[in-house]
Amino acid sequence: MTPVAVEVQGVSKRFRLYHEKYTSLKEKVIHAGRVPHEDLWALRDVSFEVPEGETIGILGRNGSGKSTLLKCVCGILQPTAGQVVVRGKLAGLLELGAGFQQELSGRENIYLNGSMLGFSKRDVDRMFDDIVEFAELGQFIDNQVKYYSSGMYVRLGFAVAVNVDPDVLVIDEVLAVGDERFQRKCLDRVKQFQREGRTILFVSHAPDLVRSICDRAVVLSDGEMVGVGAPGEAIRLFRERLLEAGDALGASEADAALGAATEDIAEEHAAEGLAYPDPQVTAGVPGATAGSVSRLRLAPQDSRPVRFTDVTCVLPAESGRRYVLPGEPVTVRAEFESVRPVVGAVFQLELRGDGGTGLFRTDSEILGVTCDLAPGPGSFEFRLEAVPLLDGAYDVNLGVQTARGLSDWREPACTFEVMNPGRSTGVVAVEVRAALVANGGLVVGNGGLVVGKGGTVAS
Amino acid sequence: MAVDAPAESPDARSAGVTSVLDRAGSVATRPKTTRVVSSETRVWARLREVWRSRELLVYLVRTEIKVKYKNSFLGLLWSMISPALTLAVYTLVFGVVLHNGMPDFVLYLFAGILLFNLFSTGIVTATGVVVNNAGLVKKVSFPREILALAAVGSAGVFFFFQACVMVIFMLFLHWAPAWSLLYLVVVGLVPTLVLACAFGILLAAINVYMRDTFHLVTVLVGSAWFWACPIVYSYQTTVASRLAVHHLTWMYFMNPLTILVMTFQRVLYGALTPPATYAPHPALHVLPHWPVSTYVWGDGVVLAVALVLFYVAMVVFGRLAGNFAEEL
Predict the structure, then answer these.
(1) Residue B209, SS3?
(2) Whole-angstrom Cα Rg for chain A
(3) Would you say domain A4-246 falls under CATH 3.40.50.300?
(4) Number of domains making up chain B
(5) CB-based contact (8 Å) between B5 and chain A?
(6) How close does chain A come to B81, measured CA to CA in Å?
């Protein structure tokens, strides 16, 4: 049986939220004993174990208690109830940067940090060169830390944490800082730590990172642990929580705002008679994060012969889920209304990924569908047979064009989410087969072919 | 605790990775200490923790001193210049202008100020220390008491420098301490340090929640407490008779620093072997004619009180320390 490295036993943490904080004596006296406050439970009875050598990710929305949990593990905050048992030496990087004394030089801070972690001067002497080399600080090591750039600061912090030979490493959202090359270096070191059998607690907002390096993940929501399990499962749980939270944000309000904005832009385009909307203009539309199925309603406008009345992303009904798995179909259905007969209308579809990256664009003309519209309501469907995408929320933009120009444009018309149960990361779901073809000069038989589990269709 | 690395493996330099691997070869099997983070605060457990982090204490003392005099031209010299200036002013005002008639008044003054400065610098620095080191407290786990102890420790370093200056003064004025009573320096010093640590720990914690504490302490210690001790004036020649009339002598000695300051004066000023020029030794009239045992007992009582206070301070600190990171 693997010994347990970190044991979180029923940890709760209460914060007092003072509506107004009285820190001076006068205020304390005036408001003695009846300072208005609210109790905020940042953590509520969280329990889990991390066996030695495991890498565990902690997922949760902002304010879900991730950082508080890590601070309790590190011993910076004392839990209100419960306890954390840590076996072995713990080094941690909390939020941005380690604890440095601003006035001291990098060199002095390394020694100070080392002694805080329980190392003697001789121990630190031995690690010193590795730390400086890893942090890539060079001559700046003797400058006061307060003059460091944020990148240097984080690099030094990380370098100390990974070079002090910890048994348990705690990383809170720090890999996001530093340039790409340094991030890669940090990840390499994290992976090396995994091989060496060290325990890692890892908080990240990047589910992909959690998926690729963690053995398990804990999902926190409003201070409560809603699940712990394999990263794929945990990420799905996390995403579902995000969706719920999105719904909770007054869907009607959000939709109204969105509708109005979209309408304005559509009007603009109609006036200018643009064939395609200028992405510069449309980029200003508030992102639609409402959920996998978002609806927009527009008031009828006389200037445009065809307009959408309702656009929905229809997910496979039988699953009952609010997201699709890679490889499942999604149907984009547009209800429209035509005020007069239109010959040769063209429906346009655009698929955009994270950050508005254009992934795919097509229209009814390309697909060879002729649309001569009679006056009155109608509907049009784009059926994406198999969505070859991995994790993320994808926006669908929809437009309809007539000979006189763009008649209507919705951006985003609707949004759908893809969740990836596998462990591969990226944007595109590629079915991969892997095999060791030759080994030690011998050709291995075909029987060695392994179908990659990650990212492929999983049902 | 850390597994010893093979001294200099040949290719440890060439690839930074190897050295870590070497050290970590036995991550799974090496001995590990268990640490429990909970709301429970046992004083003894925390004291053990402090003892284990004693090397950190040394670092923090150095940090405290470095940070204090960073970017100042004279640096550490200030720890000697500022008391010297105080001495100069008081000597001028009381010794020369008001002419209090104490022989070598500057030494009497120095003996008292030496000890008082240790105490006052210690607790004033300690009061602000947790707030000033918020960057560390919010990010790294270590026994927070150490910060307050380090503040007192840095005051101890200044004490040492000032003591050196005092020695120079004594050499210059041909004044010898009471050699046979030199152990009283330690007898007076130990309760002072414990007392300073107790107050320092208590006030450091309270200051996190009430920032007024720092200003209050600065004023109280700098003025009220200073004048409550027989540093500038003599207990024997100035206040003793007046206190005795009103039966308030006990109240005067409720101030734990009184007896400690007088102990220092007894050793460093009230020499039994005075220079030949003073006959009969006039310094003995400035100090009370107490047997040495009175000082020892007095200091002993103060030490006992200080230890109790220290325990109380640790308990209070332990209660409050759990929320430092969120209060800062």
Answers:
(1) helix
(2) 27
(3) yes
(4) 1
(5) yes
(6) 23
* Measured distance CA(B260)–CA(B277) in Å, rounded: 29
* Chain-chain contact of B139 with A94 (C-beta, under 8 angstroms): yes
Q: Assign B225 a pLDDT band (cuts: 50, 70, 90).
A: very high
Dump pLDDT digits (tens) for A84-105.
998 888 887 776 556 788 888 8
> In terms of Cα–Cα distance, which of A202, A124, A122 is closest to A165?
A124
Domain ranges of chain A: 4-246, 251-418
Domain range holding B307?
54-327
Q: Which residue of B20, B36, B137, B144 is the best one to mutate when testing the A interface, meaning the one whose CB has the most A CBs within 10 A?
A: B20
Using CA atoms, how far apart are residues B140 and A113, in angstroms rounded to an integer?
Answer: 8
Average pLDDT over residues B249-262: 91
On chain B, the residues whose CB falls within 8 A of the CB of A162 are: 20
How large is the ipTM? 0.76
- Record: contact A98-B70, CB cut-off 8 A: no
In this structure, what DSSP letter does residue A142 have?
A: G
Which CATH number applies to A251-418?
2.70.50.60
Q: Is B207 on the interface with A (CB under 8 A)?
A: no
Cβ neighbours for A248, distance < 8 A, ≥ 6 positions apart: none
Domain-located, residue B59: yes
Q: Cβ atoms within 10 A of the Cβ of B250, count?
A: 8
Mean pLDDT within A396-417: 83
Q: Which residues of A311-341 are buried (b: 16+ CB within 10 A; e: fewer)?
A: bbbebeeeeeebbbbbbbebebbbebbbbee
**Residue A448: pLDDT over 50:** no
User: So what's the pLDDT on residue B115?
Assistant: 94
Q: For the whole model, what pTM was predicted?
A: 0.71
Contact at CB, A133 and B16, closer than 8 angstroms: yes
Q: How far apart are CA A92 and CA B142, in angstroms?
A: 12
